Each structure stands twice: as structure tokens, then as C-alpha cells.
């Protein structure tokens, strides 16, 4: 057993509620999976009939579908070794958009699972059915409990807690549970034992010693270029890259694939890219995660957002790279903790934009997270030129890409304004022109934040311009609509121009005729 398992399993299996804080990758999942199995096993042994129809014995709550699915897999892996002659223990995964709530209910009544694993929204919907009886529930687990108790989930989590019997065990788990403060008691804990497992390095509170935390100071416009350079030139095998928003994942995923296809420094299929974010449906999300986890390419990289920051246990990730720090500093150790798990060595590198963002290092130090400086690799001129040309080539192939760039840029500015460390990540200090360059924009989009831009270029145009009238969509229907709109616009302009000319002429004529009239009057 790992230390957290050795401390937690005996307590939770017996009669204690627990609040467990242990570094990322320290084995918290098995620390609750085993007690849950023991509790269910006891009921099956002691009561001949087992659980009555519509009843279940345990609930495990997780903030994301991916994590819920992973926990379900850990149960399934263990249950493979469960004796066949015993009454079978079954689990059911309850997460939104995998199937309908009705289908979930149907499966529950048919399969009679004793352990329910799900996300708060779907679980709440499920429990609201009169066919589901909660009175036999023996144990409730909140994995990533501080997240489940934050503002986004608290309402649902508490509604679930209220529906379960008071006489039950409760276990709260997270690498950052302290952040939840006294909110932990909103889960109906009774006399809990707090278990804390820190890293050997006393200075790091929530990440293990095997995980090296680094930062690089990078020019805003070079971030993605640098990422590509690192992916091509360094020997990392499995990498997770955190992007600020869902739109930026989509945008850079497409761009990255194009750059790879055009690069003569990467063999075909040598480097495989995956994308995962919260705006994708549950099925493709889970599939992507599985494909990335089992990828056999010599290098694999997952572009994602905070949706894949907590709890995910993907084997052999050796680098986590953050293009920008998360808006919530509590997310930082979770993102980094996707590598350096279970005593394996891992590295997490965070890009900080040159200037004020460098203060983030001291800010994290106060939170017991020490980041070491790494020299930023120098990009070769030849590579840089190739990158710029290839990116423009990609951009001009389809106008949709430009629209996407604008959306990503705007979403980034919104994201930036949400940083809880507002004195470091200031909208006033953002280098908007460099940001436009990174997001492949030739013109600064109209936004209220433009007031912070010194030397605002004429009409917002940056170093190169595009003839937007000729910039086409690849999609035929979209292009037809654009051309139609363009024509309508041209006609409208012509009409306005004509009307203007007519008015001017009328004015001229009236001036002339009134002058003539005046002269005539003088003459007479
Ligand atoms: N007793 C053990 N011996 C060896 N490996 C273990 C043991 N317990 C767990 N592991 C492995 O350690 C890895 C990390 O475990 P787990 O995902 O439970 O970590 P965690 O503490 O929940 O991390 P996080 O805070 O990121 O959610 C897993 O791959 C798991 O299989």
C-alpha cells in the first residue's frame, strides 16, 4: 500500500468519516475503492437477499465524466479478480450525454449495480426517480472534493448529500482539500479524521517529490512556436499541453496538425496529436482519452483544458506543459500532477509571458509551490520563418480558420480577466499585438480592452493585411452566403453613393438657380 492507502483504508472500512489530502498520484483512488468494495461485500454476505430492488450501497461523486469513467475502470479491474461463486458486485457509470437518464434507470433496474459512480448533475437527476431508493446507501465518496464543494457544484452536491441516509460513512479526497476549508462539513461529515500525506520535500504541499516544476519566460507571440519546437526537438514521449480555452484547443490543434504535415523534421505518425475539451460530447471525449492513453506512437501529445486537470491517471506522461497558468491557482498542482505519478519522474513546465507574469513564481512560492527557472530554447531563424509562412498558408486556405482565430483571441482575453491573481495578470499589461500575432490575426478585433493598447494601429491593422473580399470559405454554402452578402453590401454602397451624388447635384443646382434668381432680381 502507498502511505495514503495504509492510513485511510482501515479507518474508512470501519466506522470513520475521513477527509484525505494527499499529493497527486499518491494512490487516493484505491484508498476509497477498497473500503467501498468491503462495505458492499459485507452487505452481500450478511443479508441473504443482498440489496433490495431499487436500492444501492455506495455513491462516488466526481466533477468530470473522464474521472468518473476512470474510477469505474479501477473498480472493474479489481472486480475481475472477484470470486465467481460469490454474489457479483457491479458498478454503474452515471454521467451526462453518454445515454439518457431513462436508459440509465432502465440499466439500473435490470443490472442491479450496488455502486454508483457519477457526476453531480446526472446523479441528481437519477436519484430523483421514485424507483431509486437511497435508504441502503452505506458510503459516499467525494473525489476531488474541493471542486465538488466549489460554487459550480455545491448546490448539486448538497442536494445529493441530503437524499442519502445520515447513518453512512463519508470520505472526502483531494490533493488540495484544505482549500475547501470548513465547507467540508456541508457534506454531513460526522466526527471526521483528517489524513494528510505530504511530499517528502516539505516545501511542496500538494505535488510529489518525483515531479519537477519549472517555468520558462516566453514572448507572448512565440509561445506556440516554442511548443512546436519542444515537441519536435526534445525527447518527451507523452505530453499534456494545457490551453486556456476550448476554442484555443480547436484552433491550435488544427494548426499544429498542418504544421506537422508540412514539417520535414517529423516522420509521418511519429508524433500524434489529440484534442480534448469540455465542448465535445462525452463519447468522443472518453474515446480520445483512451486513444491517448494507449497510444503507441513514439511521441503523443494531448491538447486540452482544465477538464483534464484533476484526477486523470494516464500512464507514462513525462511532460505537462502549460501555455498559460490556470486562472485558479488551485488548479496548478492538479495540472502538473498528471505527470510524476506513483514515484515516476515527471516534469511540468509553465510558460510565463515576459514582464509582469514573472511575479507568478513568488505568488506560487507563498502557496508552497516552488518553480525552478528553465532557460528558454532559442528558436532558429530558419525555423521561425518556416513557421510563419506555413501558418499563413494554413490560415488562407479557409476563412473559417480566421473566424476561429478571432473567437480564440476574444476567449483568451475573457479568460485572462478571470485570473484570481488579478494583480499579476492585468488586462492593462497584456501585449495585445503580440497576442494577435500568436492567434494569427492581422487586425485587432474590436473589444473594450483595446483602450489599453498604446499606439493603436490605424483601423487596427497589424503588420500584414488581407484582402478580405477575396478571402474565401472552403465550405461551398458558407462561401456562397458570403459572396451574396458581399454583393448586397456592394449594391447598398452603390445606392448610398448614388443618392449622395444626387443630393450634391441638387444642392449645386439649387445654389446656381437661387444665384441666378438673385441676379435676375438685381437686373430687373
Ligand atoms: N499500492 C500501490 N502500488 C503501486 N501503484 C499504485 C498503488 N496504488 C496506486 N497505484 C498507482 O498509482 C497511480 C496513481 O494513483 P491515483 O490515480 O489513485 O492517484 P491520486 O492520488 O488519486 O492522484 P490525483 O490527486 O491526481 O487524483 C495509479 O496509476 C495507480 O495504479
UniProtKB/TrEMBL annotation:
This is Unnamed protein product. It comes from Ambrosiozyma monospora (Yeast).
